[in-house]
Amino acid sequence: MFELLAQTSLNAIYAASYISLVAVGLVLIFGVMGVVNFAHGELFMVGSYVVVALYADRMVPFFVAVAAGLIFVGLLGLLMERALFRPLRDNPLGGLVASIGFLMVLQALAVLGFGVRMEHIPPVTQDVITFADKISIPVARVYVIVTAIVMLSALWYFLKRTRFGWALRASAQDPEAAALQGISVTQTAMIAMFIGAGFAGMAGALTAPLISINPHMGHSVIITAFIVIIVGGVGSLEGAVLASVVYAFVHTFVTTFFDGVLADITGLALMLIVLIVKPTGLFGSADRA
Amino acid sequence: MTALLEVQNLTMRFGGLTAVDGLNFKVEKGNIHGLIGPNGAGKTTTFNMVSGFYKPSHGKVLLNGEDISGLPMHEVANRGVVRTFQHSTLFAELYVLDNALIGTHMTFRPNLFAAILGLDGAARREALDRARSSLEFFGLGDVEQELAGDLSHGHQRALGMAVAYASRPDLILLDEPFTGMNPEETRQMMDLMRRLCAEGTTILLVEHDMQAIMGLCDNITCMSFGKFLAEGGPAEIRNHPDVIEAYLGGARHVA
Amino acid sequence: MRNLFLWVALAIAVIILPNLVSFSQQEVLVFMTINILVVASYRLLTLTGEWSLGHVVIMGVGAYASALVTKELGLWVPLGILVGGLASALIALALSVPLFRMKGFYFLIGSFAAGEIIRLLWKRFRDPFGGAKGIKGIDPMPDFSIGIYQFDFFEPVSYFYFSAVVVAFCLWILWRIEKSPVGLTFHAVHWQDKLAQASGVNLRRYRTMAFVIASGFAGIAGALLAHYIGTINPNSFDVEVMVFVLTWAIVGGTGTFYGPILGCVVLTILNEIVLRELGLEQTRPLIYGLILILSILFMPNGLESIVQRVTRRKDAK
After folding, report:
1. What values do phi and psi take at C134, rounded to 5?
2. Residues of chain B with pLDDT under 70
């Protein structure tokens, strides 16, 4: 029994890693720009396909492909900021709608470029770390966990210790005051968008060898991301990380002991309960909704 | 004899801030009662508690002896207490007549099935008559086909009151009705309010314009820093040392 | 007088139209008619200012309800369709309890979540919903004759006439609601909810009313769909379809009653004539996505604003 619990916990930690990357990206975008990026799941998908195109099809080294994924999707985020969110800055509902349109475009482009079937790309490494004979974790998953910890720490450092990070936080708290202080709204939006999108893309890229890739995979990603940020509190980055862990554990355990669909239902029900009881989330701060 | 409105030990706390602290006063039926005080005294907060927009942290609001504290706004309105809003809050995208029609909501409650089947003609006509008479009372009879957002400032204020009056409430709460009015408009508005009162409507108003307050009110309650400061007729309040002090001293704390 | 003439002309056009087009286009007409009801019912909801992302799933509730009640219980199909509408309305009523504690953005996400939960329940429970495969072999409308015309529901034309009548009736009801004092109250709730409350309007009750009514009509549309196609599954009512509905509403504009209907018709024609002729059918999601983006950026008031500008100029002359 202990082995099962430990194994499931390891699986949950892995899930929490990439979920928190996605959720943190979404919160960053919402916090700084006040807009809900419905296309966030598709940004994850694009990251996966970058790895498909580079690592699987062109034998580019895996981590180079992941870095490329991060940068490419980050740039895609900049495109979204410039073309969609900036003109619609006064109309957050419009921005949301535009992001829905964009997710359709990305999905369609993925179908055109790669076809509808599911891709499975060769694993990065077949190595597995085993504890006590019964508990194991593929090294590939360890890569994801370690990268997530490193990148989240880097982000934390960036936000708390650098000028740009401070500017981002100020913009998120009070955009008008920040503007009066000489912080460029556009610049902070661009930085937030690049990082937010880049993180989603990176999560997709990192997990590409471990999951089945198809143009519609973004659907479940965005749902998970919404659940997490609502539960964690819409304006809170720490909340997003904590809620990712909570969600990953709940989901993984329910999947292991019952089934995946029930786990999905549980996650959604959890979100609804939070929305009813404490809409600002478990760790929520003042939000911009 | 129970007062129409009584506020007992009314308190409102927002987190660490106590906006209103243990307020007591009564509004007699048929009066025009003023609520004054320097900025930040808690007048609008008091209004919001009386009208049901806020639930008091403590204390009671009694209407004809009945405890209405914490009831939602539409319930309070249904008991005959209607309020206006400080910042020309109107349905700007709708016609003036439609604005007034919404004011008749409580008296001529819309019936969905009757409407679909076309059986509500009589009720609709009556509601329209009521809306029109309310507009006429406030001198807006000519502009009923204009968009509310296109009206002049003075007319917008008048419309706000016409909407409130359309349900013939027992008590109207007026939130700074004279803001931004020139002396002529102020004079006209004061006349209208006297007529309103003569018809039997009790008025509680929050206002900064001292001339209007002194000229209109039968009774005045003065607040300062959320607490009761003084109460009395215009002559008493005008000469009350605490009131004068509050306004002179309060000038340094204007928000 | 002019209006009466226009309505008669429209009715004649509707009767003649299916006979002028190909078989597959007749099918498109059927779908378009049903979609018009979906989008018009969605508009009623947006009248109170609430944008739900669960509307298409609620349409699905009607579809599933009607399918089950006719297939398993042998109920007469037209009654089944009514049951479908009722089921959707009841589910909406139940959902309104948790959902209307949320406002704006949270309501959007909450309605999305509720919709996903319902879809997952369809997927999870083979019995009675048929799981991921859904329900097949749904009873079609029984054939009947009205003397001058024999309704043979094997033919799309018959089903087109049938749904056109049903949808026209529903649209008439929706129109009457909008023009009634209830409709005015919906507008009030949308624009200035505090002021509406001060006039005694129970916001929650009216929002719920709009939600339930809109859902009821969506359910009827779903049931109409179910009895036409004959099979339904959870993917028939997924996010992609919701995005189509959203696109029609936004492209057409939601300021007027006809706005979303205009959006639906224009985009359906675009899809049929332009995309199918050019063989670009597969790119429909791409085109819709682009149209949605371009619409919200450059024509945020929708096509109806163009129509209004044109008619205003005509009146001014």
Report:
1. 80, -155
2. 1, 88, 248-255
- Tell me the chain B residues in contact with residue C173 when contact means C-beta distances shorter than 8 Å: 116
Helix (H) or strand (E) holding A131: strand A128-131
- Write out residues in chain C with pLDDT < 50, as ranges: none
Beta carbons of C199 and B103 less than 8 Å apart: yes
Each residue's pLDDT tens digit, B114-153: 888 878 788 888 889 889 999 988 888 888 888 888 888 8
Alpha-carbon span A167 to A188, nearest angstrom = 7
State the average pLDDT for chain B: 86
Q: In this structure, is residue A277 part of a structural domain? A: no
- Closest chain B C-alpha to C228 CA, distance in angstroms: 29
C196 alpha-carbon distance from chain centroid: 28
Query: What CATH number belongs to B1-80+169-255?
Result: 3.40.50.300
| pLDDT at site B1 | 60
**Three-point CA angle A54, A56, A57, nearest 5°:** 70
The length of chain B is 255
Chains A and B touch (3+ CB pairs under 8 A): no
Place of tokens 């936004």: C250
Searching chain B, which residue's CA lies closest to the CA of residue C201? B74
Supply the mean pLDDT for chain A: 87
How many B-C residue pairs are in contact by the CB < 8 A criterion?
Answer: 93
Q: Are B74 and B81 in contact (CB under 8 A)?
A: no
Interface of A with C (CB under 8 A): 36, 84, 87-88, 91-94, 96-98, 100-105, 107-109, 111-112, 219, 223, 226-227, 230, 261-262, 264-265, 268-269, 271-272, 275-276, 279, 289
User: For chain B, which residues make up each domain, given as ranges?
Assistant: 1-80+169-255, 89-168
Query: Would you say residue A95 lies in a domain?
Result: yes
Number of domain units in chain A: 1
Its domain, for residue A208, covers 2-216
Contact: B78, C180; criterion CB under 8 Å:
no
Q: Which phi and psi (to 5°) does residue C198 adopt?
A: -65, -25
**Prediction pTM value:** 0.87
Q: Residue A242 falls within a domain, yes or no? A: no
Strands B171-175 and B81-83: parallel
